[in-house]
Amino acid sequence: MTASPSRSKDNPWKLKTPPGTSDYTIDDLCAMLKQAGDWVELGGADEQKLAKDGSVEAWARSEANPLGGWYGLKKGLRGRFAVYLPPLMEELGLCEVEHNAKNNRMRII
């Protein structure tokens, strides 16, 4: 993916998963955060570990999310959605992310 400085909340990056098999935007996570209305714990965890209920990571793995399950990576290489997407969203000015040693949260701006 070639990053473009003109990308913004109104002109989001259209992303592909690492294997290039699925497209996604970060609008799904923005909508979830907006619906939550306040801080949501990140809960980043490897695939082999359970994600904390109510966290961004749990949402990214839930069959109730817009993709109906894991966000885009093949089994064995997935997980840690809540580690990688929040900093990107923060850089784009879409959310606030805490930067504590652990138990960080994010919220929509």
Number of strands: 5
Shape assignment: globular
Rg computed from alpha carbons, rounded to a whole number of angstroms: 13 Å
Strand order of the largest sheet: 3-5-4
Mean pLDDT comes to: 81
Question: What fraction of residues sit in β-strands?
Answer: 5-15%
| Unreliable segments of 5+ consecutive residues | none
**Separation, N- and C-terminal Cα atoms:** 25 Å
| Largest sheet geometry | 3 strands, antiparallel
> In percent, how helical is the residue content?
10-25%
Number of helical segments?
Answer: 3
Order of helices and strands: EEHEHHEE
Please describe the topology of this protein.
Blueprint: E1 15-16, E2 23-24, H1 27-36, E3 40-41, H2 56-61, H3 81-91, E4 95-97, E5 105-108
Antiparallel strand pairs: 1-2, 3-5, 4-5
Task: Describe the overall structure.
By secondary structure, this protein is of the alpha+beta class. 25% of the residues lie in helices and 12% in strands. It is built from three helices and five strands, in the order ββαβααββ.
Gist of the model:
25% of the residues lie in helices and 12% in strands.
What key phrases describe this protein's structure?
globular; 25% helix; alpha+beta; 109 residues; 3-stranded antiparallel β-sheet; 12% strand
